[in-house]
């Protein structure tokens, strides 16, 4: 192993609390197609790590694509023992984001595995892919995975482990899990399976490892609710995670270890969790700082905001999601201007640094008038408290009413972003505007609604990924979707087609 990488892994392990070191007959690699810092901020990644290690005869170790740059192809190491990541019985990948699709190809090659399922044989590990992306759209992953898990890992991981113990071969293992909730076998099935849905007594789930070397430094994460009671049409939370399940507050408090300095509460609609204030007060009494994943503007009051401020929150974060009241009603967002103004006044009264406001543009039926309304109410909010406006292009997703809506178009989105920046620039520093790329939102939209051909296109990009290269690769594999046109036309590079 490269000495620089060896030193980095050693330092990261020494900084961790909760690492599991285990030797067992069944070796599992749990890999993440991005950096260590991003992976260790993923509660789902950590929970699956703990669950596999809790199974008799199973030992699970972690690997991260980030480390591939320090080793030769095929020699990506695991953290716990330093063995080759591909030297295992089960190679699991947890993927959260559409834009990590190409990284999955890179990860498999870094571990010494053929990316394409049909090029591997019975002696290779079973490649299992799970995570939020598989619930959103598993089909671009079909060329690569032997098994795709859809839904809650609390239900699928024990079932997989039991089947493995009872199987005498890779084929028999697949036979035993075929048809189970949440199990999708790409070489045998075309349609998504029933999603696996965990029982409420599986909650809360919580961090296994605490580390300062993550996007959420030294934070102990707890998921206190799963599912969402809200009807927002653009969001997958209600569909992906099933009915709303709320963890018992005493169980939430009981899982927080002694010595933890900061707790992050997680839930799709955390402010709808009926015990959020009770849990918040109890953690403050223990001297624990507090962070939250999301707060809805229509549920904010001074008491909840005070808890968050006392817990260390400095900027108050909410989402409008629609630039106008008309569009928020179209999205069934249930947020009105009065809710946004109230949140701004609370942020001012409690002396938060300001308001962070998430917004989407490029929505169905959106016009310049909707953008005008957003600009005007942002100005009004800025008179109350400083505003950091975070803007993302709208990406239609499967399993939502917007599945067949057109992507607004790169030119349209870029023109509206330019207008917003120009008209709000004069209000700096009271207003800061940050936005994500319209071009990469287009790629995200392609992956979010694409099929196996999009996965084959991703394979062509493993050595050089760019917006232009994506368009060329999609053309090479015969992709076509009139809902997501490749706009604007650009000079594209020629990629040799290496997929059959």
TrEMBL record:
PANTHER family the UniProt entry points to: RADICAL SAM DOMAIN PROTEIN, SLL1084 PROTEIN
Cited SMART domains: Elp3
PROSITE patterns listed in its UniProt record: RADICAL_SAM
InterPro entries: Elp3/MiaA/NifB-like_rSAM (IPR006638), Radical_SAM_N2 (IPR045784), rSAM (IPR007197), rSAM_horseshoe (IPR023404), rSAM_sf (IPR058240)
Domain Radical SAM core: 214-430
Molecular-function annotations in GO: catalytic activity; iron-sulfur cluster binding
Protein source organism: Marinithermus hydrothermalis (strain DSM 14884 / JCM 11576 / T1)
Protein name (Swiss-Prot/TrEMBL): Radical SAM domain protein
Domain of life: Bacteria
């Amino acid at each position: 192993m490269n000495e620089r990488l060896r030193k980095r892994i050693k330092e990261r392990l020494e900084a961790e609390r909760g690492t599991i070191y285990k030797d067992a007959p069944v070796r599992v690699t749990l890999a993440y197609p991005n950096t260590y810092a991003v992976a260790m901020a993923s509660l789902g990644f950590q929970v699956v790590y703990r669950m596999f290690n809790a199974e008799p005869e199973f030992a699970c170790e972690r690997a991260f694509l980030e480390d591939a740059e320090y080793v030769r192809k095929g020699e990506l190491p695991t953290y716990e023992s330093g063995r080759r990541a591909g030297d295992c019985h089960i190679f699991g990948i947890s993927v959260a984001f559409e834009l990590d699709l190409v990284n999955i190809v890179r990860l498999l090659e870094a571990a010494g595995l053929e990316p394409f399922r049909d090029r591997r044989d019975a002696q290779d590990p079973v490649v299992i892919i799970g995570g939020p992306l598989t619930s959103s759209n598993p089909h671009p992953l079909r060329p690569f995975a032997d098994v795709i898990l859809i839904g809650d890992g609390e239900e699928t991981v024990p079932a997989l482990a039991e089947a493995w113990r009872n199987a005498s071969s890779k084929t028999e293992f697949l036979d035993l899990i075929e048809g189970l909730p949440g199990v999708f076998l790409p070489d045998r099935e075309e349609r998504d399976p029933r999603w696996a849905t965990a029982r409420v007594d599986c909650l809360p789930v919580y961090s296994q490892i605490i580390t300062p070397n993550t996007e959420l430094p030294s934070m102990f994460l707890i998921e206190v609710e799963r599912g969402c009671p809200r009807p927002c049409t653009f969001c997958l939370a209600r569909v992906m995670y099933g009915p709303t399940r709320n963890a018992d507050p005493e169980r939430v408090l009981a899982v927080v270890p002694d010595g933890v300095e900061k707790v992050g509460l997680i839930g799709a609609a955390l402010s709808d969790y009926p015990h959020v204030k009770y849990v918040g007060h109890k953690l403050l009494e223990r001297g624990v700082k507090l962070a939250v994943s999301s707060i809805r503007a229509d549920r904010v009051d001074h008491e909840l905001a005070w808890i968050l401020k006392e817990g260390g929150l400095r900027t108050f974060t909410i989402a409008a999601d629609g630039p106008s009241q008309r569009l928020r009603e179209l999205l069934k967002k249930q947020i009105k201007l009065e809710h946004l103004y109230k949140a701004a006044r609370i942020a001012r009264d409690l002396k938060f640094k300001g308001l962070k406001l998430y917004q989407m543009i490029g929505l169905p039926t959106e016009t310049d008038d909707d953008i005008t309304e957003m600009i005007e109410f942002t100005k009004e909010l800025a008179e109350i408290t400083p505003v950091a406006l975070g803007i993302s292009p709208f990406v239609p997703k499967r399993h939502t009413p917007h599945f067949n809506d057109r992507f607004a178009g790169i030119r349209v989105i870029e023109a509206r972003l330019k207008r917003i920046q120009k008209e709000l620039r004069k209000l700096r520093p009271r207003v800061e505007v940050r936005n994500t790329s319209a071009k990469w939102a287009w790629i995200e939209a392609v992956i979010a609604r694409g099929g196996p051909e999009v996965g084959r296109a991703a394979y062509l990009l493993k050595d050089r990924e760019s917006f232009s290269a994506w368009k060329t690769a999609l053309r090479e594999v015969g992709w076509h979707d009139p809902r997501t046109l490749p706009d604007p036309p650009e000079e594209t590079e020629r990629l040799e087609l290496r997929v059959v």
